[in-house]
Amino acid sequence: MTTALASLEAKARAALADGDLQTAAAAATALVSQSPERSEGYFLMGMVAAEAGQIGRAVPLVEAAVEREPCAEHLAQLARLLILLRRDGDAGNAARQALALSPRDALTLDTIGCVLARLGDHEASMAPFTAAANIAPDNLDYRYNLAAASGFTGRVEEARRHYEAILKVDPANARVHYALAILSRQTAQANHVPRLKKALASAERPDDALRIRYALAKELEDVGRAADAFCHLSAANAAHKQAISYDFAQDAAIFDAIEDMFTRQLATSSFDRGGHGNPDPAPIFVVGMPRTGTTLVDRILSSHRDVEAAGELQAMPLAVKQLSGTPSRQVIDAATIAASAAIDPAEIGDAYLARAAHHRANGKVRFTDKLPANFLYLGHILRALPNARIVCLRRNPMDTVWSNYKNLFASQSAYYAYSYDLMDTARYYQRFDRLMALWEDLCPGRVLQLSYEGLVTDFEGQTRRLLEHCGLDWDAACLSFHTNRAAVATPSAAQVRRPINGDAVGRWRSHAKALEPVRAWFQVQGIRPE
């Protein structure tokens, strides 16, 4: 590269780093004009477009760079952009190609790790995250990513060590405080409550206060201080509900649209088992309200010799959204549900399986999709994938409400917006319960409704029932699910690495007074609260 071209590249990169997109774009354009056969100009033009939020424009520019020079940096950034466009298979291929080129710069390594983590391949993300943290040990973001991956893959003490190292440098880091709180069960002798209270007092941003209050609530409940835990939790949830301007009517409209579609539009033409869908029997859907045992059942099933865990896939929601053609930014809304009635079920099945294939790494004949919110799509699944098996976890309604209310999900996700208010969560449960009754009316016996409490009290018997429903032979390894070494990236990570136990049964009773309005409302609705 000539001195002039090197100067243009340096100018573009420096401007990008400073956020001066106009200067960066001008320099990158000049690079392309003066040396169209080289990759750097196209790559930097793509990065400028990406920084401007123009992901669709950025991808072909970075692809042009990769065509000219498939270096690790270009491939890693291409993978990052493809993930944003939900092109998981292409993103995974690009990330793995980048890793195969043995990159040595920390940003590229961390980017590869982030893409693999987004794809659910947390074990594979460990190597690039570790390398990035070793190259740039003072970069706290890299170390955080390594800590999170360590926790997801069961390396609990390594995760703890990395999180503590971050807090030594940045004692106010709220996401680290929360990650440490949920990493394992705290005790009266070993907890972080005093440190968390100090961090809360100095928290300046609402998101930081939210995470620290959740961490405090979790640790206080662990050590038996239920009233103090509820105080922090209610303060955090009330503030966040106000911040996101949530109204239960938003979710009610989605439930209404689903019920309307499958009772009036499809039931009138005799809802069937989806004989015109894709007949592939590979998928096993594990659905239900969050925090009801879906991760536990996923671990049981994926301990079977013929089953692999594909993770919490967005494959069905994205297949329905894409094929419905609705212009809204939301993956699910009333308009998308209504439009999906006109889609050929086989198209949905084909699109789902194509997306899911990118998350199947072990070549086993069956796989689990553990997205709890797929209960909203069971009508689509029943028609589009007539040979798929479906398991819905059912848990005591009061424990379900409490567990949803006390867990911090993805704070900006519309899926969980209901969970910041006890009565909103109760209303959501009631609509979930009603929807499950609809699926049973339309397709009796197609969905196994499995009791979490029943699983705890009769583990082997219910496991046999589960395997039989899923068309699987008996495998004693399913009883040793806690030895399954696969990564877990849900709040249940610590629990599912322990043998089956009933510790979580009846937890709501510690907060019975605060939950009394929920219990009374459930009684009026005909839902047995105990």
TrEMBL record:
Q: Which GO terms describe its molecular function?
A: protein-tyrosine sulfotransferase activity
Alphabetically list the UniProt keywords: Transferase
Q: Please provide an example of a Pfam family that matches this protein in its UniProt record.
A: TPR_19
The record's SUPFAM superfamilies line, in alphabetical order, gives: P-loop containing nucleoside triphosphate hydrolases, TPR-like
Top-rank taxon of the source lineage equals Bacteria
Enumerate the InterPro entries for this protein: P-loop_NTPase, TPR-like_helical_dom_sf, TPR_rpt, TPST-like
Asked whether the UniProt record includes Transferase among its keywords, one would answer: yes
Protein name stated in the entry: Sulfotransferase
Q: What is the lineage of its organism?
A: Bacteria, Pseudomonadati, Pseudomonadota, Alphaproteobacteria, Sphingomonadales
